[in-house]
Specification:
By secondary structure, this protein is mainly alpha-helical. Helices cover about 60% and strands about 0% of the residues.
């Protein structure tokens, strides 16, 4: 019976350690010098907050250029028929996908926007700053048996408190690894360096649009609450979309403008 307990508790921990090692393992290819070309705000947003961080930054980029505005019931809607000069691909995709009043999360889920965000993600993957989606899927497939170990062990009966606690601790570690940001160790160092180098942007206002955009890219929700409180609240950037379908109304922003025009 002791051997059974050791195996039932040891197997999840072994899978967890393999998953951690795989998650932290550097890529096989040499990492290019990313800092030779500064990261864009949208790239910083993805490095900080994943796909949603990139989408948040793109929406703020559009808001500061008055290309979108807060709409009815915590939505965003088209503003002036123009895009910021040299706008990011994510901002361009969001602008052209926006149809009437739409919650930011629903806009983020549109395929055109998702495709633009994936393009930014691929760039950071090649630079060794974020883990590839493929590796994340492999890591999570290793974690699924870890989650199942405690319920299966309890169902078979005979497990003592010690073994159940070990299994639960493995579950806690698996949950932490599951939700771990996609940043690599190098990506975490780059983000920390960017925050040190641009600490002053947290005091910027809408008069300094570039600095304010950088603040949102690097700090996310705290920057939105402190520096763009009205837009963040009214646009739905800090909320989940309602469950019921929403009247989108209005017209399409498609074709109204192009970057640099």
């Amino acid at each position: 019976m002791l051997v059974v307990h050791v195996l039932s508790a040891g197997a999840p921990w072994l899978l967890l350690l393999i998953a951690v090692a795989l998650r932290l393992r550097p890529g096989r290819q040499p990492v290019p010098d990313t800092l030779a070309r500064p990261l864009t705000p949208v790239q910083m947003g993805l490095l900080r907050g994943g796909a949603w961080g990139a989408a948040q930054t793109g929406l703020v980029e559009l808001h500061l250029a008055e290309s979108i505005e807060a709409g009815w019931r915590q939505t965003v809607q088209p503003g002036k028929p123009r895009l910021p000069r040299d706008c990011s691909e994510v901002a361009r995709a969001q602008y052209h996908a926006l149809f009437g009043a739409t919650h930011p999360r629903r806009l983020h889920d549109m395929e055109r926007v998702q495709s633009a965000v994936r393009g930014v993600s691929t760039e950071l993957e090649r630079a060794g700053l974020v883990v590839s989606r493929r590796r994340v899927r492999v890591v999570r497939s290793l974690l699924l048996p870890v989650f199942a170990a405690v319920p299966l062990g309890a169902a078979t009966g005979g497990q003592t408190t010690v073994w159940l606690v070990l299994g639960l601790l493995a579950d806690v570690g698996a949950v932490a690894l599951w939700v771990w940001p996609r940043r690599t160790l190098r990506g975490a160092r780059v983000l920390a360096r960017l925050r040190r180098d641009h600490a002053s942007v947290r005091l910027s206002t809408e008069r300094r649009r570039d600095a304010l955009l950088l603040s949102v890219a690097l700090y996310g929700v705290p920057a939105l609450r402190a520096q763009l409180p009205r837009f963040a609240e009214e646009s739905g950037l800090l909320t989940r979309p309602p469950r019921e379908p929403m009247d989108r109304g209005g017209g399409s922003g498609e074709g109204l403008a192009s970057c640099g025009g």
